[in-house]
Amino acid sequence: DWLSFGPQLGRGASGATVLRCTQSARALQTASAGADGTEDGTVQCAAKVLPLSNAIFADMVEDFGREVDLLRSLGRHSCLLGFFGAWRLPAGSCSLKSAQITCEAYVLCIELCDAALEDVVQRRCSQKRAFAQHELMPCLAQVSTGLAYLHSRGVMHRDMKSANVFLQHDLPPGERLQAVTKEDFLDLPLHELRAKLGDFGAAKAAERAQTPVQTPQFMAPEVCRQEAPYGLEADLWGFGSLLHELLELSVPYGQELTFPELEQKLLAGVPPALSDRAGAEQRCPSLVPLMDSCLRADPAARPTAGQVVEELARMPSLSAARQPVAAAAEVAHSGGTG
């Protein structure tokens, strides 16, 4: 009864279900330091639950275990989604009954956020409201800082995209998600939100990265060519693809491209094009060149994640965005946690 599950938040490709979860005092004793607790001593979080039923394959269990091991090794960082603990719960436990799960299950508890960046992109696309540079810079600074921290630990993310960037509003602990509706949250200024890089299910030690990631539109050419092992530079192509997604309000290469057509472009090292490059350069004059540098076909010609953080900190920007960008750069240099 020390874990209580709530509504479903999503499903993972590994067969796991993501549920809203409340951790009580017992769980907090083994949870990572820094969790935001409520007045009653509980923590609201997101739980990835993998039921150990006959429908679950052995490789799904292995992948789940690797993700837990990776999260434990990373520790806490202000620009990464927080890890609060993992457990194997027996069948019939009160916690699993609250989620209507009848068999034993693995549970991984992570930080609860208000939305994914992908939700904001889709909202802005439906409103036909392109981002201005000052709106994007704090978010990009925080994402690149999280990526730089991963790389400093020898870990590749391997699935950089807006769906794996999570957003929070700076409200008191326990008030997130209740303070505003989901739609109201998506209309908040992006530069006033805190961005955290998450979903480490595809992450892997750099020296062992040999298989493609799951999202082909964000895949680096060398990954598509299966030039194993590929390096940290593939994540910088992913970061450039994320930046393209934010400028275009659509997935790289567009929705209409067939997979063979996409594969042909990737094998040739052709980056995604902006449909209105002149407009993007007018709105985001410093970010378009940064995108171009990350989307260079030659991996060795791309900047490192640390260099991206430094470049963002040097960019001219409106005062609304300047302070968070500078703060993220300071965290990247110090390797500090939040």
Automatic annotation (TrEMBL):
Keyword Secreted: no
Stored PROSITE patterns: PROTEIN_KINASE_DOM (PS50011), PROTEIN_KINASE_ST (PS00108)
Taxonomic superkingdom: Eukaryota
Keyword flag Transferase: yes
Pfam families according to UniProt: Pkinase
InterPro entries assigned: Kinase-like_dom_sf (IPR011009), NEK_Ser/Thr_kinase (IPR050660), Prot_kinase_dom (IPR000719), Ser/Thr_kinase_AS (IPR008271)
Molecular functions (GO terms): ATP binding; protein serine/threonine kinase activity
Enzyme type, top EC level: transferase
EC id: 2.7.11.1
Keywords of this entry: ATP-binding, Kinase, Nucleotide-binding, Transferase
Residue ranges annotated for the Protein kinase domain, each copy included: 3-318
Gene3D superfamilies per record: Transferase(Phosphotransferase) domain 1 (1.10.510.10)
Record's protein name: non-specific serine/threonine protein kinase
